[in-house]
Amino acid sequence: MMPIVAGVALLAQLATNTELGYKFPLPEGFVAFPAAAAQPDVVGCWTESVPASPSGALIMCVQRMHGTIGREALRPEDVPPGSKLVHYKWKGFDIDGVRTDTAESGNPVVILAAQMPLKPEAVNLIVTGPQDQAARVEAIMTATLAAFEGESNWLSAAERSGRLGNIAGVGIALAILVFAVRMWRRRAQTA
After folding, report:
1. Which residues neighbour 15 within 8 Å (Cβ) at sequence distance 6 or greater?
2. Model confidence, pTM
3. Residue 41: helix, strand or coil by DSSP?
């Protein structure tokens, strides 16, 4: 009976959204945070049940972007003032992110956001926490991205190669066909 209980506990720690097509395991000790989820376009939010820092708890949210995003990289001038462009890896893709070091209620905080190129709609994965927990905020973002599941609207390198191979194959087939027609016409003219 113990394995079933452990399995149920693991399932309770999975964040899913069937409309947006993603799922990922929540960091250990995180629980639903409905107050933050009431923000515009936020579809899910979680926080530490017991903050690891006296400065406050870490918070993780998913925010919808109302459309897909292309593969064009953000430029440093595209990010808000006081923020900097950062990059993350997800499923072999280089994805854009933004890091903001700011203050809330006089307390320094770090905010990380990663743009997830999901199909049918992109989302921002946001992790924030007290500045003294910046390393944990980074570690949680990296670990969550490593386990984040969802279908991307971007083609992987293998998919792009496959399409390029198909295009090249069609080109070669057309070239062979043109060559064969020319050879047939030459033979027909000499006969």
Report:
1. 22, 23, 24, 25, 26, 44, 46, 62
2. 0.76
3. coil
Contact 78, 69 (CB under 8 A): no
Distance CA 71, CA 67 (A): 13
Structure tokens at 96: 């854009």
Question: Which amino acid is residue 3, in one-letter code?
Answer: P
Of 130, 157, 106, 125, the closest CA to residue 25 belongs to 125
* 111 vs 138: CA distance, rounded Å: 9
For residue 188, give the H/E element and its range. helix 157-190
pLDDT in tens, 32-54: 998 887 888 999 999 999 999 89
- The alpha carbons of the chain give a radius of gyration, in whole angstroms, of 24
- d(C-alpha 8, C-alpha 52), whole Å: 25
Q: So what's the architecture of 2-150 in CATH?
A: 3-Layer(aba) Sandwich (3.40)
- Determine the length of the chain: 191
Q: Is the peptide bond between 120 and the residue preceding it cis, with omega within 30 degrees of 0?
A: yes
Residues 108-145: tens digit of each pLDDT = 999 999 999 999 999 999 999 999 999 999 999 999 99
Q: How far is CA 131 from CA 24, 29, 68, 98, 188, in A?
A: 25, 20, 31, 15, 82
